[in-house]
Amino acid sequence: MENVTKIDIIGQEIASYNEETDERVIYPLVGVDTFMNEFSDTQDLLTVNITDPKARIVKFYEITESIPERFEIIDYTDMTAGQKVIFDEFVNHIKAL
Amino acid sequence: MAEGEINEYLVTATEVKALSFFDIDQYISAGIYQSQKVPLSVLQSALGGGGAFGISDATGTYTYYDTLTLAMAAAVSGEVIQVFADFVETGAVTITFKDGVSINGNGYTYTLNNSGTINAFEYLSSGNLSFNIHNFNVIRTGSITNNTTQNCVVRLTTATSGNIDLTGSTFTNSGSGAGFALVTKIHLTNGRAYSSSVWGAFAIFSFNVEAKLTDCKGFATGAGFGIRCHSGGQIENCYGEADSGYGIFGTGIHSNCTGVSITGYGYQTTGKAYNCVGKSTSGNGFDITNATEVVGCTGISVSGVGFRHSNKTTYNCTGISSSNVGYYMAAQAVTAYNLMSKSTSNRSMNTSINQSIYGGLIISEWNDFAGFGIYGTYNVATVILNCTFILANSSAPYLQIFTNAAQAVSTRGNTYKGGGAFNPNITQAIVTTEDSQGNIFL
Question: Are B291 and B270 in contact (CB under 8 A)?
Answer without folding.
Answer: yes
